[in-house]
Amino acid sequence: MNKKTIGKVLNYIGKYKIFLGLSVLFAALSVVLTLYVPILIGKAIDCIIDAGRVDFDKMLPILIKAMAAVGITSLLQWLMNVCNNKITYNVVRDIRKEAIRKIEKLPLKYIDSRSYGEVVSRVVADVDTFSEGLLMGFTQFFTGVVTILGTLIFMLTINVKITLVVVLVTPVSLFVAKFIASKTFSMFKLQSETRGEQTAFIDEMIGNLKVVQAYAHEDKNMEKFDDINERLEKASLRAIFFSSITNPSTRFVNSLVYTGVALSGAIIAVNGGISVGRLSTFLSYANQYTKPFNEISGVVTELQNAIACASRIFELIEEEPEKADSENAVVLNNAEGNVELKNVYFSYVPEKKLIEDFNLTVKKGQRVAIVGPTGCGKTTLINLLMRFYDVNSGEIKIDGNDIRNITRHSLRSNFGMVLQETWLKNGTIRENIVMGKPDATDDEIIEAAKAAHSHSFIKRLPNGYDTVIGEDGGNLSQGQKQLLCITRIMLALPPMLILDEATSSIDTRTEIKIQEAFARMMKGRTSFIVAHRLSTIKEADIILVMKDGNIIEQGNHEELIVKNGFYTKLYNSQFSQ
Fold first, then answer.
1. Sign of CA dihedral 505, 515, 376, 561
2. Which fold has domain 86-317?
3. What is the CATH number of domain 424-493?
4. Contact 257, 166 (CB under 8 A)
């Protein structure tokens, strides 16, 4: 079992020392009372003097005490379970909260390099499995340990010789449990990882179901799912099989303990060394002594699974976060929009070069269009401007400040983004529009919607602006989703704009109106426009023609056409007719 992971779990548990202390106290008291009951039963048996000779006057108070002890034990065990539940679910809440906070602080490259389903599996499925194992561990582990110690003390007070028989055979049970448990951790970890892979695939398949059906890829997906499912089956069967043999193995060893106590006790009782009642008490203790070993062995296998899941959660929590803003970071308020990129080098992976020695100067209010073939670095440039990724070397400045010395929040709040990929959340139309300006009035929202030409379709929805849409826009068309994203920017009106194929999903007639609205919005604002349709960027002040991460041509539309270079070829390929 991973000791480091256990240490981290204990640190979380340590925050709830009061509940932990109460749980141990209630466990100890319930065990003491549980162990007191066999003594009372033994005394009651000794009240049976001979056939037809029973001392009922002496037996009745003993039985009343035994019933009271059982009742109080039940109450204490209930209180112990309440404390254990408090500890478990508080720990789970803390871990989930920390995991979500870490996801928000992780650099974008972490999310980009992993499937969403795998990350979701860690935060949801793995934490659930961990909580189940932890709760079982608390409920049975504390009680089991205290029971073992308590029964040993009580047995020693009754007969030392018989107790020694019990103690000598016990290590065999511990050795068997430890041997099996040491083999199962890696199996449970593999099971958890494969389950994460399966969750990721299901998430991917459901999220892209239209594409799957459009390309008749259902059979291929089923083959892949069956492969993952079979691997999960094998991993789960191995883990469960090896963990399941722990309990029968320890039960076999513990039955030897009980047999040894019964034989040695019978011999001593025949020789008058112990009464029948006390021997029955001892046999009850022997049974209670061995029972926790069975329970703990079962708990250990559950804990193995829980710790394997916890290690995956902690891997996420301990990931290197996005580099924090420097202490003297500048808060950028109402940026003018002067942007300079100087000797910028960047690549997503070191072995694959992308942007090299990139230089660009953009003055306040200029419209910069970025064109070029797929993979040339257009969207990467946007990622760098927004500090979703930091440059490998060189610098990007806004109003003379290196963006690495500007707080991320203030930097991003000065940019408005409309991308080809729409960003909508589960909520009302109004909630989706006001994300960039939460305090906007109804009049401002409607005015922005009219400017973005979304007001008419919003009014046709069942509840207008209060219509609830699902994740990623629900049943809205792709064009309607994009209009909502444009409305969001129209409302916020930040000093700098990034439009990455912002009208790609909109019909031509609406696009002309949107372009007019954009033209009004971009007036006096620094704008970066990524476009494949060159008709949308003819009015740009600067057109950057990119290829393989470098600017190969630069100028306005007329200047680039005169050069008869790469831009001219791109333009003619779209308008040759």
1. positive
2. ABC transporter transmembrane region fold (1.20.1560)
3. 3.40.50.300
4. yes
